[in-house]
UniProtKB/TrEMBL annotation:
Keyword Oxidoreductase belongs to the record: yes
InterPro entries noted in UniProt: Flavin_Rdtase-like_dom, NADH-dep_flavin_reductase, Split_barrel_FMN-bd
The keyword Oxidoreductase belongs to this UniProt entry's keyword annotation: yes
One Pfam family linked to the record: Flavin_Reduct
A GO MF term: riboflavin reductase (NADPH) activity
Domain of life: Bacteria
Domain Flavin reductase like: 22-171
GO BP of this protein: pyrimidine nucleobase catabolic process
Protein name: Flavin reductase
UniProt keyword annotations, A-Z: Oxidoreductase
Length: 174
């Protein structure tokens, strides 16, 4: 058995250790959307999307309680989940940027099932009903049930996913 690295030893249990390890983990990129009581859309880029259960069809993601989207997500019954394609790097960056006009003129979207804002051009999307919001540090893990969606998106299944790795949005390589 080898000794732990200096980095791991000195940062044991630290946020820096967790971040540095997860930079090595490639994750799919999604945008989560919701609408407030006046039907104004909000959204953010998420790399924490997970399938939880097939029956019932549940998924989860985490969101910081300091996020500008959290006040709406905290009270929304329904939300949208959008799987981004490698051609949507700019969209991912827009929805990740603090203070950005995420639903400005450059963002193509439309109202979807249950009033969920649906982004155009995504690889796939789901409209989901929120079933739980679980406290986790300065975040909440949101668990939601898929109630509608399109598994092929507008490209009819002909796209490649956008990934997040080493702190950057990336495309798959052959």
């Amino acid at each position: 058995m080898t000794a732990p690295s200096v980095l791991a030893t000195t940062q044991l249990g630290s946020p820096e250790l967790l971040r540095s390890v997860f930079r090595q983990h490639a994750a799919g990129v999604a945008v989560i959307t919701a609408a407030d009581a006046a039907n104004r859309p909000v959204g953010f880029t998420a790399t924490s999307l997970n399938s939880v259960s097939a029956d019932p069809p549940l998924l989860s993601f985490s969101v910081g309680t300091g996020s500008s989207s959290w006040p709406v997500l905290a009270g929304s019954e329904y939300l949208g989940v959008h799987i981004l394609g490698e051609h949507q790097r700019d969209l991912a960056q827009l929805f990740a940027r603090s203070g950005a006009d995420r639903f400005g003129p450059e963002t193509a979207w439309r109202p979807g099932p249950h009033g969920v804002p649906l982004l155009d051009g995504v690889l796939a999307w789901l409209a989901c009903r929120v079933v739980a919001r679980v406290p986790a540090g300065e975040h909440r893990v949101v668990i939601a049930e898929a109630v509608a969606g399109d598994p092929l998106g507008e490209g009819r299944g002909q796209g490649r996913p956008l990934l997040y790795h080493q702190g950057r949005f990336n495309a798959l390589r052959d």
